[in-house]
Amino acid sequence: MLVVDFGAQYAQLIARRVRELRVYSEIVPNRITAGEVAARRPAAIVLSGGPKSVHVEGAPSLDPEIYDLGVPVLGICYGAQLIAQQLGGVVGRGMRGEYGRAKLRRSGPSLLLPDDAPDVHDVWMSHFDAITAAPDGFAVTASTEDAPVAVLEDDRRRIYGVQFHPEVVHSPYGMAVLARFLHERAGADPSWTMTSVLDEQVARIRSQVGGRRAICGLSGGVDSSVAAALVHRAIGPQLTCVYVDTGLMRKGESEQVVETFRRNMGIELIHVDAGARFFDKLAGVTEPEAKRRAIGEEFVRVFEAHTGGLVEAELLVQGTLYPDLIESGGADGTASIIKSHHNVGGLPEDMTLELVEPLRELFKDEVRRLGTELGLPDEVVWRQPFPGPGLAVRIIGEVTPERVALLQDADAIVREEIAAAGLERDIWQAFAVLADIRSVGVMGDERTYGHPIIVRAVTSDDAMTADWARLPHDLLERISSRIINEVPGINRVAYDITSKPPGTIEWE
Ligand code: XMP
Hints:
It is built from 14 helices and 21 strands.
C-alpha cells in the first residue's frame, strides 16, 4: 500500500497503522506520477493529511491520472479535500474549522464506516477548510457540525475520503475504518507479519550476498543487533561482526553483547577490547566536544585496524531504519546513507563496501518485534537509546577508568531499581550522571567530602522533546540510599527535574 505524503508526520503514523493491520505500506512523495504508481502495483493508496490549505498558492497536489488507475484511494483530511477539489467538488474556505474531538453523524448507508459504529460517534478533527459539496458520483455518508461532508464515498471507482483522522487513537473507530478500506474495499490481504518479513528478508539477503563475506559493526544497540542477527540467519558463517568495546559502555553491556552473539547465536564476533586506547586519548580532556572528537577519531582507527584484516569482506551490514531514510529524503527508496551505528564520527569515508540494510523498510517498534522473533533477549530488544560516545557524555570533567567504573556502579543501581519497580518500559531513558564537583556531608561520625550523582529519568516518544519522569518518591529514596551506601566516594544524590526543552536529555 502506498501512503502519499502531504505532511511527513501524518504520513508516518498512517503507514504504521496500516502495517498494524498487516498490510505492508510505504511512504511516497506527493510528486509521484500515475506511471510510477502503476509500476509499483499497489493494492491501495492513502492520501495523508497535511498542514496546508488546498487553496493556497503552491499547495501540494496529486497527479490526477492516479484517480483513473483503478487503484482504490482513501483521502484523509487534506487528502479528502484534495479528492473533492480535483474531482469537481467544492472545498469551502474561511470556515470555522474543528480541532479536537467532534461528533460524526451518519447521513446514509456507508461501506467505509464500520457497522458497529453508532450513528453518532467521536472522531478526531484538525481542519480549517471543509468540503461543502462532494464531486459527482460520490455519496456523502457522514457529517459533523462544521464539516458538512465529513465522509464521501464513490464505491464504483473505489475512491473515498474522510475529513477526520482515523489514524489517531482519539478516533475510536478509526482503525476499523482503515481496516474496512484496506481489507474489504481494496481487498488487501492481511498477510504482512514479522514472520513474513523475516522469511522475505532472509531470501533477499541471500540473493544479494551470494557467496561473498559481510561484516557488521555491532554497537550493542537494538538496530545493529537485530540487523546482525537477521543477516546471520540468512548467511551464517559468511558474516563476521566487530564489536569495538570503548570501555565506555554501561555495566555488564559488553559481556552481554559477547554472550548474546558469540555464545547464544554462534555468530563470529571479533571483540576489540580497546578501552585502554580510548582512555589514553581522553586523558586530560574536559571539554565536551573535544571528548566526542577524541572518541570518534579513535573509533574509526580501531574499526579500520580490525576490519582491514578481513580482506575478503565485500559487504557492510547496517541497521538503517525506515525513519532514517525518510528524514534524509530517501524515502522513495533511491538514496542510501551511511548511518554510523556509533554516531561517533562515522565509519571510514574511503570504505568501499556494498551496503546490506535489511531493516530499511521497518519502524523501530517493528525492529523490536523482529528481534524477538529472531530470539534476541529482551535486554537487547528493549535497550534504551544510548549515546555513541557512551558514558563519556555522562561524566562532567575528565573521563578516567576510575570515574567510569564509579558511574557504571551508580548507573546499574538506577537501572536495577527502575526494573524492580516495573517501570522500565514506561521510561524512555534512565541513567546516572557523574558531576565533577564536591560537597560536604556526614556518614556515621565522619565528615565526607564527596561527589554527587545526578539521576536522570525521562519520558519521551522520540527524544526531540522529553519530560522528567514522575518517579515515585520511595523509588527515588531506594536509588539514593543504595548509591550512597554502595558506591564509594558518592555522598549525595540529586534528581534532575528539567524537561527538554529547555534542557537536553543527556548531561555533557
Ligand atoms: P539530547 O541529550 O540531545 O539527546 O537531548 C537526544 C537523544 O540522543 C541521544 N544521544 C546520542 N545518540 N550518539 C547517539 O547515537 C550521540 O552522540 C548522542 N548524544 C545523545 C540521547 O541519549 C537521547 O536519546
